[in-house]
Design a protein that fits this description.
Elements lengths: L1 H15 L6 H8 L3 H7 L3 H24 L5 H19 L2 H9 L1 H29 L8 H18 L3 H19 L2 H14 L1
Length: 197
């Protein structure tokens, strides 16, 4: 029953946002009493926290799946971007914004976890890109990870309009790849832009 509750909560939180879904709504959707619901979750914040962990794990599993497909390092960035773009279209920026306002501790956890995953992805991508000849061998990996994360985080923290987020994230990605690419990397970037424009 606990898994069923979390699954339905995830579905509703994604569709309607964390603030819009009440424990009454969830109990009604599951055709159970609120008493039964509270037997498993002492309050809504506990449920939001567990649902957030599940959603985050599902998303990171998708990222790992993309990373396992052995795209070249530039192409991999565009595949991850496509994954994010699909998520933003489905979910929008609202749930993360609501977490920040209503559940700041959960939001901090999500951001911290996102930062760790971003670092793992970028470190692996940059090392592979150098090895594959797409990125320059003199790239300061830690500096580029920090720089690119700062740009991406700033965009996601300060822009709510999904169309503008998409445009700015693409610009940041192009800027990032151009800064570290060899001729081979720039050619692949241009190829990806022609495919994904």
């Amino acid at each position: 029953m606990r898994k069923k509750i979390i699954s339905k909560a995830c579905e509703l939180f994604i569709r309607l946002g964390f603030n819009s879904v009440t424990m009454d709504d969830l109990a009604s959707e599951l055709c159970i009493s609120k008493k039964t619901l509270y037997k498993f979750f002492s309050n809504k914040e506990v449920l939001v926290q567990e649902a957030t962990y599940i959603l985050e794990k599902q998303f990171y599993d998708k990222i790992n799946q993309v990373m396992s497909l052995n795209y070249n390092s530039v192409e991999e960035h565009f595949e991850i971007r496509r994954l994010f773009k699909g998520l933003v279209k489905t979910v929008g920026a609202l749930p993360l914004y609501q977490l920040k306002k209503k559940y700041p501790d959960i939001y901090k956890y999500v951001i911290s976890s996102e930062h760790k995953m971003f670092n793992l992805f970028m470190r692996r991508n940059l090392a592979r890109g150098i090895e594959q000849g797409y990125y320059r061998s003199d790239v300061e990996i830690e500096e580029y990870i920090s720089f690119y994360y700062t740009i991406r985080f700033h965009i996601n923290e300060n822009v709510i309009d999904t169309i503008q987020v998409d445009r700015l994230e693409l610009s940041a990605l192009v800027y990032h790849i151009q800064a570290i690419s060899t001729e081979k990397g720039r050619n692949e970037l241009n190829r990806q832009l022609s495919i994904n424009a």
